[in-house]
Amino acid sequence: MEDKRTRRMWPFIILIVVGLVVGGLGIFLIAHRPKEAPQQPAGGVTNQPNTAPASQPAASILRQKKKKPKPPATKRDGTGNQQGVQTGNGNQQTQIGPTNAPIKLGGNAPCQANSYGGNATVKDCNAGPPPLKIQWSVRDQEGGNANWHFEKIVTVTPNVQWQPVSISITCDQSVRDIFPEGIFMSPQKGFDSTGKIVSISYANPPQAANVPVSFEVFSDQDFRVLDVKLQ
pTM score, two decimals? Predict the structure, then answer.
């Protein structure tokens, strides 16, 4: 009898063992299955919550850093007036922006202010030619002429165009005559009461800048040239 009961219970025991094995295996697989990555929408763009303020458009979320332009450099003159931007080249300067301070360039000529539309003021300065100055030198000339045996050559060089040409020559002895070297139109001569100061002038031709002109000075005795001046 017991063998029959035991034989009848074996199928149940096998079912119970198989159920335990299958259940354990299922629990093991569930516990160790890989986690699935969150599903992304088409196009590869991840859905993220919009944290931008409601008052700003969605495009303002992406911002690019922009360099702020530096304000133009300013200079101040001795009076404290702001002069704006200045650029210089030699003796010429261009000023941008309004100012009350004058621009001083070469020479002493004043500047004229010209307005070029709007409120911008540009100061254009035309200093003009520098004042006339001369350099002079003296050398001995042997032989003189038929009347006067002593001669000096006075060479004068102007820094700018010179017209009319007019000088006075001071000597330590009496001067008898003076002539310009070259071709000149009606030179005018003059002597002081002592004869030691002689002057000469002519209008044509004009003397070019930095080009020397020479004068022959005669006397009946040995003499020295003391000074040469414009007149």
Answer: 0.47
Number of neighbours of residue 158 by Cβ within 10 angstroms: 21
Retrieve residue 48's tokens: 């993220």
pLDDT at 12: 78
pLDDT per residue over 30-55, tens digit each? 777 766 655 555 555 455 555 555 55
Residue 187: Cβ-neighbour burial (10 angstroms; 0-12, 13-18, 19+): middle
Domains and CATH numbers, the chain: 85-124 (no CATH), 134-230 (2.60.40)
DSSP 41: P
Let me know if 159 is exposed, middle or buried by CB neighbors in 10 A (0-12, 13-18, 19+): middle
**C-beta separation of 198 from 169 below 8 A:** yes
Q: Phi-psi region for residue 58, left (φ > 0), alpha (ψ -120 to 50) or beta?
A: alpha
Residues 6+ apart with CB under 8 A from 20: none
